[in-house]
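Below is one record:
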Amino acid sequence: MNKQSPDRTGSRRQILERDPSLAVAYVCKVHPKKGTFLVLKAKELGLPIGNAAIAPIITAVKNGENIMFEGKEILAEELCTPPEPSVVFIVLECPHEGFIDAVCENSTLLRYQQDNPENSVALIVHITPDSVLKDSRYKQWLESFGENTQHLILNENCKSIHHLHSYRIQSQLNYIHPKIFPLLKNYHPRKEEEAEFSVPVTQGECLLKYQLRPKREWQKLVAISVCLHSMNSVLAKDLTSLTPNCYPEIVFLGTGSAVPMKIRNVSSTLVNISPTQSVLLDCGEGTFGQLCRHYGDEIDKMLCNIAAIFVSHIHADHHTGLLNILLQRHRALVSQGEPHNPLLLVAPTILKTWLHQYHDNCQQILGHIKMIPAQFLKENANVFKPNANVYIESLMEKCGFREFQTCEVRHCKNAFGCSMVHKSGWKVVYSGDTMPCAALVDMGKDASLLIHEATLEDGMEEEAIEKTHSTTSQAVEVGMRMNAKFIMLNHFSQRYAKIPLFSEDSSEKVGIAFDHMQVTVPLKELPGVWNFTGLGLI
């Protein structure tokens, strides 16, 4: 189907729309590869290695021709490895059952089912829904290629939903410390039974590849750029100190600023207070996806655990994931057989205006929250709404807090930081977005952990003032003035590809947050990780 669309100059240009009656298949044939000339063997036989006379000899033996040298015949196989035959692989799309007969009866594809070595298929990639794979016609056609053909399935049942770069980075970091940097989990939202076959069939997953030459095999690609031997002693020391199921556990879901990028998502931090209670600090877009990647098939349980969300301010990179979290949490409660339990939302009052507009014009969501205005949790605040007092008491009781306090910070209007003090004694302080702020220092005195934004590198203080953010050294200085036992820096500008720039004399009380990094309070293991970030692994 064709239609006209104006380009920027106002002229009409033709746009081709996909014909729904067509599906596409690609038959790819890799050329045969000539054998490798054996230089050392040629030297042993006295051939003229290193001058122009060797060129026609190399050409001849690579073409499989024997040669005569000094009156003696030398066989081609003595000087050259065997050639590698051509390899065929097919990429096939079968969108629904209506295409099955067309695929099974296609004359081009039938040619590759015949017993002909030149047409032997190494791999078929099926971009095919599960309903097609379960159809007996398609199943019989797939199995007719024989047991020497591998089949790769790409469809809605693929377990991995990872971005290649984030998965690769996490896999590399996992070599440094498998508990602090756990491998990303598979999230399999559909629990349907997969089709079974009598031939080799593989479900697609992130970083999986199939090697055609020199040996046909599946490989899981994880590029590691440091020598693991240099880590062994430190790794052994760190791993012996691991304490399982220690709380609170901090999971960084988004450690970048402004917009999501391939390495860092926007702001969100999960604080697991106990095995059954959690608090989410900010909720930027993509937070639900990050939770899926971190917890995999345990996602519904984790959503049910979230008792409260703190939104520091109304910039989009801190709250646009909220709606999806509310809806997915409601779905999870139903699927887990849990009673309806509205989530406690601590946020600037102005956020409620946006929620009301969405509720009135798009989808009903106000029943999923009980809102506590952030200003009601400031020190000596006048809580003039009766419901707010009830909600605050519920927050304290559910999460086991002795104190949950907020303060206004130096960013936009109605921007807040927060401090959580648990009955067991730990204290976690979260800055949100801010310039160095005296009120935050006062509120966070003697914190067990300070999570502070460090958007910009040192030397960019003027830009930090203009954008009301902090540099790395400014964030560290806030933690030192606060007497925080440990400082985790996050909310890095996306201009930094992997890690921001730091001064070499940074304290061992300071850590760099990465997406999907998880730490427990008190932080005893992180300095070892800090030392490894400069080894080129990341």
About this structure: The chain has 19 helices and 24 strands. The radius of gyration is 30 Å. The longest strand covers residues 401-408.
